[in-house]
Amino acid sequence: MGSPAPLLDALDTAGLRLTEARRTVATLIADRDGPFTAADLLADARGRGIDIGRATVFRALDAFSELHVVERLDLPNGDHAYVGCDPAHHHHVVCENCGRTTEIDDAGIRDIVRAIERRTGYRVDSHRLELFGRCPACAAAEPVS
Amino acid sequence: MGSPAPLLDALDTAGLRLTEARRTVATLIADRDGPFTAADLLADARGRGIDIGRATVFRALDAFSELHVVERLDLPNGDHAYVGCDPAHHHHVVCENCGRTTEIDDAGIRDIVRAIERRTGYRVDSHRLELFGRCPACAAAEPVS
DNA sequence: ATTTTTGCAAATCATTTGCATATAT
DNA sequence: ATATATGCAAATGATTTGCAAAAAT
Question: Is A62's CB less than 7 Å from nucleic acid strand C?
Answer without folding.
Answer: yes
